[in-house]
Structure formats: C-alpha cells, structure tokens
Specification:
Layout (H helix, E strand, L loop, with lengths): L3 H8 L18 E3 L16 E7 L6 H14 L4 E7 L9 H8 L6 E4 L2 E6 L4 H13 L6 E9 L2 E9 L4 E11 L2 E5 L3 E6 L2 E5 L7 E6 L4 E9 L7 E9 L2 E9 L3 E2 L8
Parallel strand pairs: 2-3
Antiparallel strand pairs: 1-13, 2-4, 4-5, 6-7, 6-16, 7-13, 8-11, 8-12, 8-14, 9-10, 14-15
Length: 268
C-alpha cells in the first residue's frame, strides 16, 4: 500500500480541469510559521477520516452502502469526508481506473478509510465505520493539522492547503474536486437518485500530491494548486488531505470560494 505514492509520482496524473502555466503572481509552496493552539479550544487537531467509496450507477447494492455511510455520519458528525469514485459509468473520473487498480477493487460497493487497504468494507456496516473513527480519536496525537481555502477569479481556481506536522516525517498534500447532488438513474434506486461527493478530478500534480519534504514536529507547510474554474461549479467542493507513509492523516473540505480553518479537539 505504501508504495502507491511512487507509482503515482511516475504516472504524474494531472487534474482534468488543467493547471495554469508559470503562475508568476503567486508565491511558491513554502514552510510557514506554526499555527498556535488556542488554550481554550484544545491541544489536539480535529481528526476526520477520508472515505473512498467505490460505486457505480449500474450497481444495485451501492445505494445500501451509501445509506450505511449516512448512518455512520449521523452517529459521528463531521468525522467523515467522502470521495465517491465511480467506475465504468457516466460519472467516472479520469483517475478512477488507476485508483481501482491500486486498491484492487473487485466488488461494488467497496469502501476504504484513509487509503488503508486493511479497512476494506464490502457490506453496509455503520457500526464498524464508527468504530474506526473512535480508534482515530483514541490516537489523537497522530493527527496532522489541516486547513484549506479556495478562490475563483478571472476563470482561475486557486486552492491553498496548509498542514502542521505533529511528528517528524515526509508528507504530501493532495487536493481534488468533488460534486454533490448529481441526479441520475441508479440501479436499485430508480430515477432522480442523488449522487454526492462524486470525484471529478484531482488537481495537478494528481493523486501523489505535492511533497512537503521532511518536516519536524510542529513545522507547517502550504501548497498551492491552480486549475481552471469548472463550467458549473455551484455544486462542487474541494477535498484536501495529508498523506504520510501511504495513509491519509487528516482531511478537510470547503466549497469553491470557501475555506475550512484549522480545527482542534475540545479538551475534556
């Protein structure tokens, strides 16, 4: 699993929306001062799980998995950020086949958390999904801080993703576009079925993300992603996450022309 970053770096998959060349008006990616922890909020970064849901409009059992995820989200509010990877249907993204191959997906629906092959779910099991979140919270010291903001101007989309390390390591920052409330005819659910968090594209340089280099505990890094503004971005969001050793360490999402700030767990 951990070697997938090397595969992606070789493939250098680019986002479908494209990237501006020679962005002279932007500062380069750089390390930035550590974001201070406010004593009244908490001492650990708020942890969310990245959910990779493999689904398809031709799959009659996929709505059941979507329902299970919604139940898990209700039990653990704001702890999941989903990316729905459609396969071999009209909603499939350019990167879908690569992701399917890397994670060896052969059954639909299938769900993974945080790019971890050991979390493979092929049945609707909201109790086990919430148990995974509870395990993350029991290891709060491993969560990286993350924030994301996006801005559209003159046809360009600029996404800034920042992270703060809690342990020394080499990280990568990844950003993708997802779209909500796409109405389709879904096997097992009929017409006008709402598909949410549908993967549209990873922003350049693709699934491998932008490497931070080696960071010490407490050091921060910001990466900037550029793309063309989607033709209809009213239902689109940015999903950004931090990778280390092949696993996602935290994730955040925001609307276009929106932001998600650093968040902290509340101390008991």
């Amino acid at each position: 699993m951990r070697k997938f970053l090397y595969l992606f770096a070789a493939l250098m998959l680019c986002g479908c929306v494209g990237q501006k060349d020679d962005p002279d008006d932007l500062e380069p990616d750089s390390q930035v001062p550590v974001v201070p922890v406010e004593p009244e909020t908490g001492s650990h970064f708020f942890r969310r799980a990245l959910v990779l849901e493999f689904t398809a409009t031709w799959c009659p059992y996929c709505p059941n998995m979507a329902d299970a995820l919604e139940e898990a989200k209700r039990k653990r509010p704001d702890r999941f950020v989903e990316v729905a990877v459609h396969y071999s249907d009209v909603l499939a993204a350019a990167e879908s086949n690569t992701i399917v191959d890397v994670l060896k997906v052969s059954a639909y629906p299938t769900v993974f958390f945080d790019w971890d092959e050991g979390t493979r779910f092929t049945r609707q099991e909201p109790e086990l999904m919430t148990a995974y979140i509870d395990g993350l919270l029991a290891a709060q010291e491993e969560a990286c801080g993350i924030s994301v903001c996006s801005e559209t101007k003159d046809g360009e989309l600029q996404v800034s993703v920042s992270m703060t390390a809690v342990a020394e390591g080499s990280y990568s920052l990844v950003a993708a576009l997802v779209e909500d409330d796409i109405r389709v005819t879904q096997s097992g659910a009929g017409a006008n079925y709402p598909c949410n968090a549908v993967l549209r594209s990873f922003l350049d340089p693709g699934l491998a993300g932008k490497p931070t280099g080696m960071l010490k505990a407490g050091e921060s890094y910001t990466a900037t992603f550029l793309a063309k503004v989607p033709e209809d971005g009213t239902k689109m969001r940015v999903v950004a996450y931090v990778l280390c050793d092949g696993l996602a360490r935290n994730v955040a999402t925001c609307k276009l022309d929106g932001q998600s700030e650093y968040a902290y767990e509340k101390d008991n």
